[in-house]
Amino acid sequence: MDILIAFIVFICSVILCLIINQPLYFALAVGLICFYITGLHRGYGSKELFKMIYIGGKKSFVVIKILLLIGCLTALWRASGTIEFFVYYGIKFITPHLFIIIAFALPLVLSFLLGTSFGVVGTAGVMMMILARSGGVDPIVCAGAVISGAYFGERCSAASSAALLTAAVTEVDIKHFLAIMLKTSIIPTALTLCVYAFLSYQNPIGSVSGEITNALKSGFDLSWYIILPAVILIVLPWFKIKVFYAIAASAAAAFILSVLFQGQTFLAVLKTCITGYAPSLSSLNSILFGGGMISMIAVIAIVFLSSAYTGIFENTGMIDPIQKRCNILANKIGLFGAQIITSVFASGVFCNQTIGIIMSAQMLKGAYSEKGTSKEELAADVGCSAITIAGVIPWSIAATVPLAMLGVDANALIYSVFLYAVPLTYLATKKIWYKR
Q1: What distance, in Å, lies between the first and last C-alpha atoms of the chain?
Q2: CB-count exposure of residue 21 (10 Å: 0-12, 13-18, 19+)
Q3: What share of the chain is helix, strand, coil (3-state, %, to 5)?
Q4: Residues 418, 184: Cα–Cα separation, whole Å
Q5: Which range is most confident: 34-38, 109-113, 134-138, 420-424?
Q6: Is 112 exposed, middle or buried (0-12, 13-18, 19+ CB in 10 A)?
Q7: CB–CB of 222/152 below 8 Å?
Q8: Mean pLDDT of 36-47
Q9: Where are the alpha helices (DSSP H) in 157-263?
């Protein structure tokens, strides 16, 4: 009963924050306090619980390091002229009535190559948002398309940590898992393209003010070498260099270009890394302002707090009874139906895609074994639920990070069509893939 009360208070806090438009880390802090009190009620000492919180929170430091680096990268790509290069020439070559399709397709291709939704959203996604805002396209619709495309690689890329984790926890070969993900992506990708074709027609990119294009041309060196940071980010992962180091190298190149070719001082660029980029020309402020480590603070708070939860849950066994209920649920509504509900619960409570993948696999592994299903089916079910569902929960890290990077609110998730299409189409077609 105590854990149920804690969950109810936590969920109510999340709902309240969404209603009054307050940062979700307030709700997560309330939840952490509730679970801490529950631990005290169950006989754990205050010192023990704080140690659990520290151990859990410590696991987030690797992710926090990446988020800070991405914050720097998004600011430095602005300062170096890399984003401005793509915006300037993108305005000239993008077909107006195909803009939303391109906003989906470009991140899709890049995420498949790089395997990182955050990295793609923070670079190509930001670029598309700047184009959208400068051309009068609804930024909410554009952001939804960008997030959809970025999540394609989360499931289907060999470099995706989510795909590698899913294959590992379900004990299947990664190549076989990726083949399943690609097959189960055909229908949702086609449906998503149809929806975005309609939205593209409804949201054509308009002609951009001549003042903006002139300001871009006069305010920045837009020579071909300015795209070097983008080239580095795309090419290095192909040489088996970790995405983190590829992002760091791209940021370093952008830093150097900012000083050498954009007329900025070393200290000014260093400040940009921390506080974000602020254009000197007021006409560009509305479309180019942003990025920096500070822009990631709210997201970092969410990452740390959600990781702190795991420390308490893992060491107190608070959620062990839930596994038994998952098996009962699977018998009533079917394996994939139970997988969806478990994914929503895990991602919603822990605010973390990684934990959602691990828990949805572990909690239902027994139910799959009882029904005599293969490990490949379990892997497919997790890949078609937990990976994308985390991205549509507004307070989940998988959603808050892209939304923060793109500078939009949770309404953009409504237009993240691919994230809904994957579980729904798989639910409708699963019997084709797995016959019993």
Answers
A1: 39
A2: exposed
A3: 80, 0, 20
A4: 12
A5: 420-424
A6: buried
A7: no
A8: 88
A9: 161-170, 174-183, 186-202, 210-219, 228-235, 243-261
Torsion on CA atoms 239, 242, 248, 253, rounded to nearest 10: 10
Q: Is 93 exposed, middle or buried (0-12, 13-18, 19+ CB in 10 A)?
A: exposed
- The number of helices, as runs of H, and strands, as runs of E, in the chain is 25, 0
Two tokens at 16?
């309240």
Task: Report d(CA 55, CA 347) in Å as an integer.
Answer: 20
Q: Tokens at residue 287, please?
A: 């479309």
Taking the C-alpha atoms of residue 4 and residue 395, their distance in angstroms, rounded to an integer, is: 20
Residue-wise pLDDT for 337-389, tens only, equals 889 998 898 888 777 787 788 778 877 877 888 888 888 888 999 999 999 99
3-class SS of residue 277: strand
Q: Two tokens at 197?
A: 């074709």
Evaluate whether 177 touches 379 at the Cβ level (below 8 Å).
Answer: yes
Q: Helices 397-406 and 139-156 meet at what angle, rounded to 10? A: 130
Q: Give the position of tokens 């939009």.
A: 408
List the domain boundaries for the chain: 1-43, 62-295
